[in-house]
Amino acid sequence: MAETTTRTPREPADPARTPDAPAAADVRPDVLGWTCPAPLRDQPRVVMGHGGGGAMSAELVEHVFAPAFGGPALDRIGDSAAVELGGARLAFSTDSFVVRPLFFPGGSIGDLAVNGTVNDLAMRGARAAYLSCGFILEEGVEMEVLGRVAGAMGAAARAAGVEVATGDTKVVEAGHGDGVYINTSAVGLIPAGVDLRPQRVRPGDAVLVSGAVGAHGIAILSVREGMEFGVGVESDCAPLGGLVDAMLAVTPDLHVLRDPTRGGLAASLNEIAAASGTGVVIEERAVPVPEPVAAACAFLGLDPLLVANEGKLVAFVPREHADAVLDAMRAHPLGREAAVIGEAVEDHPGMVVARTGLGGTRVVDMPLGEQLPRIC
């Protein structure tokens, strides 16, 4: 969901509407008032880019969903919502998974459905306690396939320390689905003293990543298109709660965490820059990119900064804590390749700039959609 939303005013009342007409008829999107670029305003139908986690997804939320049911919690949403209930601070998130193919090097839709959602809570500093699971199955899917997916989910939940507490199953007619779709939601407690949100970012904060980027998207692409890049690329799908715990043990004063999934590192950095009102400068050569991923991206004309990850995080950390946090990350199995890649700056607020290996600079834009659709 987008960090920033605006509320779209209702259309003027229709004088022809009778008193008995449904009230919902008064709440319609003001299409002519939208100022976003095509295809949201100029395209009358949803396109694949609207689900890509980039600018088009943000516009869909801003102009369609937020005006329909936005509220204080939705206005503050990041990877997950932080809400209060009975005096407790809870992190709450939901996610849907439509990856194709269902099984790929390093994981499956079952692993993704667990790790993707528990990682959203981890970006708030919370450990997921309970998980819900909703299956949408296409008529004709093999029971053996469904059993493998469920088994992967169970193993991933046990590894993440989360309990699947409730769920639902629906079946659609053959030809009206793609085998298996999964929705998961999770809830967990936010520790006292932890306040992770982009509005806390300040100029001078160090930008850290937990490891090499781009593996998940390239792993999906390799099996989907039958491509080989010399060395096999496996998804980095993993639960990040333990790594976040290690970072918070150094200091609870981390400013913001994000897992750069759809839209990759570029989308996460741009969202944080826009929400914080700071600029971000990264050193392109400092961003760890595996050689097979770099080679595949060069061959296909992709930017590895825009390729999805499922087991990495980016952190904005006060400069005085950066070295200690980096050491803690590198001591954890999921952070061995952690690196400082840049900093938040006062210049060019809301913009991400990369210093290139040739000594120049380039703007790292928010992706419009997703380079590789159906990757999670």
From TrEMBL:
Entries under SUPFAM superfamilies matching the protein: PurM C-terminal domain-like (SSF56042), PurM N-terminal domain-like (SSF55326)
* InterPro entries assigned to the protein according to its UniProt record, in alphabetical order: HypE, PurM-like_C_dom, PurM-like_C_sf, PurM-like_N, PurM-like_N_sf
What superkingdom does the record give?
Answer: Bacteria
Q: Where is the PurM-like C-terminal domain positioned along the sequence?
A: 202-348
Q: Which family does it belong to?
A: Belongs to the HypE family.
Name the segments for region: Disordered. Answer: 1-28
Q: What is this protein called?
A: Hydrogenase expression/formation protein HypE
- Residue ranges annotated for the PurM-like N-terminal domain, each copy included: 79-190
Show the ranges annotated as biased composition (Low complexity): 15-26
Cross-referenced Pfam families, in alphabetical order? Answer: AIRS (PF00586), AIRS_C (PF02769)
Source organism: Streptomyces sanyensis
